[in-house]
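Aim 2, interim progress: modelling of the calcium ion-bound target.
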Amino acid sequence: MTQKPYKILVIEDDKAIRTLIETALEEAQLASISAYNGASAVSQVRTQNPDVILLDLGLPDMDGIQVVDEIRRVTINPIIIVSARSDDADKIAALDHGADDHVTKPFNVDELMARVRAAARRVEFYSGKTDTSTVFENGGLCIHYDSMEVTVKGEVIHLTPIEYRILKLLAQNTGRVLTHSMIIRDVWGSLDQKSVPSLRVFMTTLRKKLEQSSDGEQYIQTRIGVGYRMAPLENR
Ligand code: CA
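Predicted structure of the complex, ligand included:
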């Protein structure tokens, strides 16, 4: 079986652990790149766009939570925290800041690889990596990425640029709950707690516009206190 060309970023300052993970990734036929500190990790995320990120919280130059924040400014691809038991409080904070999963050192290599594969599959599924089409379809909703035209049951919906960006982000992650922070970071580029109420206003308008033209079809679902998700619907 040939693997999809996933690229995994290993952020770890301990050379022995890094080598252990890199060897396991190689055996699993997954490409890896690595970073020894937070600054280089953030720059690699920017320039290399890795599919999955493995992050050691105890780095020499930056606080692990800050690394999670910096990465989340750039990508919503999965972050798996690989941390020592002494970092348990930080691990919880890291998950709150948008990390997706965690393993504790010393970890079982097979388990770590299983988590990496699961994360990579999610990326493939939600990013439409295998789908080169420029049209997104879900139920009666259709987004033409090239022309930025959105239709519901063939009827054109007029969206503001911000509404369009939110819709596109949700569409590219259909089925997955995106937290308020993820959406805000992606759409506005920075996180400010005051942004959450303004995101709610945008979401209300966006949903109203989509639902006006549908048969009461709920494209966007709310997870109270968490965020939003595009519901996967049957195409028709
Ligand atoms: Ca470390």
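Helices lie at 15-27, 38-48, 64-74, 88-96, 109-127, 161-172, 180-188, 195-212. The mean pLDDT is 87.
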